[in-house]
Design goal:
The protein has 333 residues and is an alpha/beta fold. The chain contains 11 helices and 10 strands. The strands form 2 sheets. It has a 6-stranded parallel beta sheet with strand order 1-4-3-2-5-6, with helices on both faces. The longest helix has 32 residues, at 194-225.
Length: 333
């Protein structure tokens, strides 16, 4: 497959469309995480469809003092990776092609969800992100657009925008791709020195610790649910020596701190230890949130959640997250 490089919206509009068009939006500096998105898009579009990869470093989503100028721009390498991964087109417009009148006066506002976590740390970031996503959706006119789950809050906001503003495009989230040591793939990883990278592993380490604590809790809850509170069953369990195990499972599964509190505590322990490393990890936030609005969940929460972390190591800011599902004690998993 030969991937075509297009620079203008007119060139993209002039292409004859057949089948479904799947779009992967990037800021370039493509890596295996992007390749996974492109391969997934290829599978969705099928052999008769079309995969378009956008490469655009959006100035609107970089705040003062952030790394717009040093953000890596590697178009030749990006083209090669896109081609290997199955893209038909790389759409790499200039800034004045996307914003022909300069910075747009009318923009998408992310609302309250966009002011939390990443939005609090990076004011205006999500307004700029949604504005360019809206423009690129109009310019590329896809049937489906794919985004990585590593940027969980971004994905949630794009889904909300598409639903609230009736964009008529399917949004697909693709699981986070990690390096062998667990670090989530990111274009910013290349900024890390060897020592900084060792410290940065605490982000995924904290998430995995929280995930493991959650899995243990859920296993204990499931074990306790297997023991109905009937006299006959209790007597039968006692006869085979399981009553104590069932009682222990029930006690641990419902203990305090448990549920979300225990997950947060397990993750924070890893981050606290990393703050004492050299170089240290500077925590921005650790949050366990409802993915529908990115508010913190309570200890009685049931349903899907996201455990998210953001931190700086040296001059590099990194984010990561894992999804979790909380069941109630009496519910089936």
């Amino acid at each position: 497959m030969t991937t075509t490089l297009l620079r203008t919206a007119g060139e993209l509009r002039a292409r004859t469309r057949t089948g479904r068009r799947a779009v992967v939006m990037t800021m370039g500096a493509l890596h295996e995480g992007h390749a996974t998105l492109i391969r997934t898009a290829r599978g969705i579009a099928g052999p008769d469809g079309e995969v378009v990869v956008t490469v655009f470093v959006n100035p609107l989503q970089f705040g003062q003092g952030e790394d717009l100028d040093r953000y890596p721009r590697t178009l030749d390498a990006d083209l090669a990776l896109a081609e290997r991964s199955g893209a038909d087109v790389v759409f790499a417009p200039a800034v004045d092609e996307v914003y022909p009148g300069g910075e747009p006066q009318v923009r998408i506002t992310a609302g309250p969800m966009g002011e939390r976590l990443e939005g609090s740390s990076r004011p205006g970031h999500f307004d700029g992100m949604l504005t360019v996503v809206a423009k690129l959706l109009h310019l590329t006119r896809p049937d489906v657009a794919l985004y990585g789950q590593k940027d969980a809050q971004q994905l949630a906001l794009i889904r909300r925008m598409v639903r609230d503003l009736n964009f008529g495009v399917e949004i697909v989230g693709v699981p986070t791709v990690r390096e062998e040591d667990g670090l989530a793939l990111s274009s910013r990883n290349r900024y890390l020195s060897a020592a900084e990278r060792r410290t940065a592993l605490a982000l995924s380490g904290a998430l995995f610790a929280g995930q493991d604590r959650h899995a243990a809790q859920e296993a204990l809850r499931a074990r306790a649910r297997e023991v109905p509170a009937t006299r006959a069953r209790a007597e039968a369990l006692s006869a085979i020596g399981e009553s104590r195990a069932a009682a222990d499972a029930h006690a641990v599964a419902t203990a305090v701190p448990g549920g979300p509190a225990a997950v947060r505590a397990a993750a924070r322990q890893v981050l606290d230890e990393a703050a004492r490393l050299e170089p240290p990890l500077a925590l921005d936030y650790l949050a366990l949130v409802d993915p529908s609005d990115f508010t913190e969940i309570g200890d009685d929460f049931t349903g899907d959640a996201v455990l998210a972390v953001a931190a700086r190591v040296g001059a590099t800011r990194l984010i990561d997250n894992v999804p979790l599902t909380f069941t109630s004690f009496g519910a089936a998993s």
